[in-house]
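Researcher: Please predict.
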Amino acid sequence: INSVALEHFETPTIPLPTASVSVVIPVYRDARALANLLTRIAAMTPAVEEILVVDGSGDTECQSIGDRPGIRYFRGESCRGAQLHLGATLARGEIIWFLHADAEPVPESVRLIQQHIAQGNIGGHFRFRFAGERRWFKHVLETAINIRARLAIPYGDQGLFVRQDYYCDAGGFAPVPLFEEVRLVRQLRQLGRFGPVDADIGVATRRWERDGWLRRSLRNRMLALRFMLGSTPEQLARSYRSGLHSDRTD
């Protein structure tokens, strides 16, 4: 992690239930999804402190959305780990909340995050829930994913959030294209309590529907196993792109 970037951080006091929340959203040609997410965030009570959009593509539509009042737009490299870390180093809030562009957070998310931190947690995540129509196989996969998140690592699509000072102490997101949150979550769990809030976050299903529910689920687990066995995120990203028709590794 760049030591110069870490100079942006200041150690705040213990956040109260009204602690300020900065939202960091990495995007890559996600204009439509970004617009929908911003509409959801605008309806939240209490409101977020700020929204930072970090664009890895330089897409003109994303940039025009990012130029709206209350949004800070930054151009970053095409690497989600690097985008997330850039947004975190520039965030002003006492709590940093990381959201994928196609996430569907509940309206009371900010209040739940503030309460979670006020209870002595240094960070946390939401329960995984597939967006759209409820189906039995969705429920089976959601259950498995949420068990894995408790026992192992919750991934970025579960709306990770953390106190700004602990993000710095943990070393931040790894600047890699895949599994960028693994090191961060492991470090945070060594520093304090990092667990789920009692609420879901909707996760878009378009990639599962496009690639096949079973095929994508099995491939995701195989990538995670290879990562545990020592393959680098860069190697896994190349394998991912060659195996699935994906517009971006995620």
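Model: The CA atoms of residues 178 and 237 lie 6 Å apart.
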